[in-house]
Write a structure and sequence with these properties.
Alpha-Beta Plaits, mainly beta, four-stranded mixed beta sheet, 274 residues, Immunoglobulin-like, four-stranded antiparallel beta sheet, elongated, 12% helix, binds iron/sulfur cluster
Length: 274
């Protein structure tokens, strides 16, 4: 089965140790025949991407480590006219820097933008899985070893079944069968603060219903008048707020397709009998 990487997004605190460790391991260091030195600028064999959601003050951010997926059906391998890219018995995909002729075909063939071109050396380069370390007795690649929260993992696919069953991979539709597995990538949220504009106070305990595609979720405003619906599938939502002494409040067509939505401060109107 071979080696795989795991990424638990919920454990990542955005410290960037993994990105820095990869650069420290490879910039200026010649690990041929695994890889020639990575240049000082322009390449991130592991890139930490940040994903802020919502608007101030209701903001969430998560980070996703992205690196070569060491794909089972790697399109980069087939694209190379020199047969310079190969998969090792342990599953790691390597670009042989001696055989690469610098045509760049693998750069455009990789749907994950994981291959970089070294203008000075005129070769393609990418994450090696730190095979130079593994072959010299180290158990973990530098990035995984540097992660202080165990958000990153590495090991035999068979030993990591507990993680991979139900996990996600990036862009599964590429057909490359990527082998970096992700868990706990948060969904969207819809949130707001509910208040009474006459008393100029937040409304505590208001009942909130959020619907989309026939599914209804329920929440109640907290001591700050806030409600949060979290980890939602991307999509459009309708909302109803109900509180004793106030008219129903309807908000329709809330667009959480691309970004989470902070509806801001939502005013309730007193019922006419009050
Ligand atoms: S992520 Fe791209 S470079 Fe890495 S193995 Fe897959 S196709 Fe090749
Ligand atoms: S496995 Fe090694 S080369 Fe690949 S991203 Fe991690 S540190 Fe960089
Ligand atoms: S080292 Fe670990 S916690 Fe830090 S940014 Fe990378 S994955 Fe996240």
């Amino acid at each position: 089965m071979g080696k795989i990487f795991t990424v638990d997004v919920a454990k990542c605190n955005g410290c960037y140790n993994c990105q820095l460790a990869c650069r420290d391991e490879h910039v200026g260091n010649d690990w041929a025949p695994y890889a020639r030195p990575q240049p000082e600028n322009g390449q991130f064999w592991l890139r930490l991407t940040d994903h802020p959601q919502g608007t101030i003050p209701k903001v969430r951010i998560h980070y996703v480590a992205q690196l070569c997926n060491h794909c089972r059906d790697a399109s980069c391998i087939g694209a190379c006219p020199q047969q310079a890219i190969y998969r090792r018995d342990d599953g790691l995909v390597i670009i042989d820097p001696e055989t690469c002729n610098g045509c760049g075909d693998c750069v455009s063939a990789c749907p994950y933008d994981a291959v970089f071109f070294n203008d000075e050396l005129k070769i393609a380069q990418k994450c090696t899985g730190c095979a130079h370390l593994l072959d010299n007795g180290f158990k973990l690649p530098r990035c995984v070893d540097a992660c202080p929260t165990d958000a990153l993992g590495f090991g035999e696919e068979d030993d990591l079944r507990d993680f991979t069953v139900g996990a996600e991979v990036r862009q599964p539709e590429t057909g490359c069968a990527p082998r970096v597995y992700y868990r706990n990538i948060p969904g969207k949220f819809v949130a707001a603060t509910v208040y009474d504009p006459v008393e100029r106070e937040v409304v505590i305990g208001a009942k909130v219903r959020l619907t989309n595609g026939g599914k209804t979720r329920h929440s109640v405003t907290d001591a700050y008048g806030d409600f949060w619906f979290e980890d939602l599938p991307a999509g459009k939502y309708d909302l109803v707020i109900e509180a004793k002494g106030f008219e129903f409040k309807n908000i329709t067509d809330i667009d959480a397709t691309e970004n989470s939505v902070n509806l801001g401060d939502v005013a309730l109107q007193l019922t006419v009998n009050n």
